[in-house]
Amino acid sequence: MLKFAPLVGFAMVTASIDERRFRRRFDEFSEIGATENGGVNRPSLSDENKEARDTLIEWFRDAGLTVRIDEMGNIFGRRSGMDSDADPVVFGSHIDSQYNGGRYDGVIGVLGGLEVVEALNDADETTERPLEVVAWSNEEGVRFQPDMLGSGVFCDIFDLDYAYEREDKDGDTFGEELERIGYKGDEPCEAHDIHCYFEMHVEQGPFLEREDLPVAAVEGVFGFSWMNVTFEGQANHAGPTPMNMRHDAFVATADVTDSVRRITATEGTDLVGTVGSVDVWPNAINVIPERVEFTVDFRSYDDEVVDAAVERIRNEIAHAAEREGLEYEFEEIMRIDADPFDQSCIDTVVDAAETVGCEYTRLVSGAGHDANYLNKIAPTSMIFVPSVDGISHRESEYTEWEDVVTGTEVLLEAVRSKATV
Ligand code: HGY
Ligand code: MN
Ligand code: MN
């Protein structure tokens, strides 16, 4: 799309998103680990995740980016700037997915970042600052908890050994799997100077669609707590065992799950709580459950609300164990505070939306993102685009392509604006 330079009055090609090229890439990428129902299954460090990484690196190199892989498998694609000593503008997201998740979550932030680079290449536009597009490892945290592990080590939230020792349900460790797929890079996983960080992402909620808006400047992210709970009771025959002789681990789990709902109804207007993963043993129709391992996820934009919810659920767990005569273990596996993003980056996203000429609003994110951690070491903000029916973490996750393109145009303008020294 030709735009006219206001000063000299002749056509000057300025960078613009090539939506067909971007769409082709997105469709090709969506074929990797594609599921029958239109989603993707590319969990962290799986063979499908490796294939996606390999493809991304090929595209990064084709776009002239210098590729760097660090000890956590974070992938950086660097584009030189006129001032090679200047701190880079970094932008990206993640390409690992939920088990049978959506095609857009994370991916549009990485492929959108690549498209920003391609648009600048097409226009032969060199920014003053270097640019870095990044794909962070293990953002989803479903195979290896906690989530945002790659960006967490990079931002010195977690140390490398802790990350390498994280185990999946089969007992494979993050470090072993990273080695197995060939992405245990040599580069130290530690923060270098970053001028600022942007992340474009699907909203994963209903707000933008409900307001019929294509873009949001994200002003901050919820804090959240992830907890692991194990109840140990007694397996026994479901028939002859009298009810007053049972120590049923699942009954206690159900009580705690019910408490999560009661706590979210009373502890704070934006508090959300989820029991998402439940493993029952021996999980047989005619055996009283002996052992249940489950997770609790609480989130709010108010840290005190999350603290109060964690405190209350700990008490509920102890009472449920006592009522049913069970042993229990409780572990908070991750706690991240709510954080406002950097005002100047938020303003840059707003200015970028105005430059693009799209309507926009401001939102706070209920989902966690790598931006949570980048925000602790560099000025950060995010750009949201709508999720149809507010759906995410599901194969039917969908965003209208024109909204993805609009969000990417805003990302281009925001990056351009901050890439000027
Ligand atoms: O849990 C989250 O919010 C993110 O998808 N890891
Ligand atoms: Mn995501
Ligand atoms: Mn996600």
What's the arrangement of secondary structure elements?
Elements: E1 3-4, E2 11-12, H1 19-31, H2 47-62, E3 66-69, E4 75-79, E5 89-94, H3 107-122, E6 131-136, H4 149-154, H5 160-165, H6 174-180, E7 196-202, H7 207-210, E8 215-221, E9 223-232, H8 249-266, E10 272-274, E11 278-281, E12 291-300, H9 303-324, E13 327-336, E14 339-340, H10 343-356, E15 360-365, H11 370-374, E16 380-385, H12 401-418
Parallel strand pairs: 5-6, 5-7, 7-16, 8-15
Antiparallel strand pairs: 1-2, 3-4, 4-6, 8-14, 8-16, 9-12, 9-13, 10-12, 11-12
Bound molecules: (2S)-amino(hydroxy)ethanoic acid (HGY) and manganese (II) ion (2 copies).
CATH superfamily of the largest domain: Zn peptidases
Low-pLDDT sequence parts: 1-11
**Number of discrete helical segments:** 12
What form results from the Cα inertia axes? elongated
Enzyme class: hydrolase
EC number: 3.5.1.87
Pfam families: M20_dimer, Peptidase_M20
GO molecular function: hydrolase activity, acting on carbon-nitrogen (but not peptide) bonds, in linear amidines; N-carbamoyl-L-amino-acid hydrolase activity
